[in-house]
Amino acid sequence: MHPYEVVFIVRPDVDEQGLAAAVDRLKSLVTGGGGQVTEVNPWGRRRLAYPINKIREGQYVFIRAQLPKQLIDEVERDLRLNEQVLRFLIVREDE
User: Fold this and answer.
1) Cα 43 to chain center, whole Å?
2) How far is Cα 78 from Cα 27, in angstroms, rounded to an integer?
3) What is the CATH number of the domain that holds 62?
4) Is the dihedral of CA 86, 89, 37, 32 positive or negative?
5) What is the pLDDT of residues 49-71, one digit of tens each?
6) What's the CA gap between 4 and 72, in Å, rounded?
7) Total domains, the chain
8) Which domain holds residue 53?
9) For 37-52, how does the pLDDT look when each residue is reduced to its tens digit (9 = 90+)?
10) Strands 36-52 and 2-10: what pairing?
């Protein structure tokens, strides 16, 4: 397993419960696939650098996790299909 950082932006109209559900969904996907979530840090609502589908703000969430290589595609697919997520980025940390 390798350390990864996952940052995703959730739509601003999603309430606290919806945001928590999106984070829990990702955490359960990671732990169910044999990974381990080491840190969850919600950054809060921030202005986007450019509008995405006429949306100018988003709720940022930062997650640090240990993931097996084969789980990365599944995490990307889940984030891409989630309609609440505007954008995401998954980066492998240097050891």
Assistant:
1) 12
2) 12
3) 3.30.70.60
4) positive
5) 999 989 999 999 999 999 998 89
6) 9
7) 1
8) 2-92
9) 999 999 999 999 999 9
10) unpaired
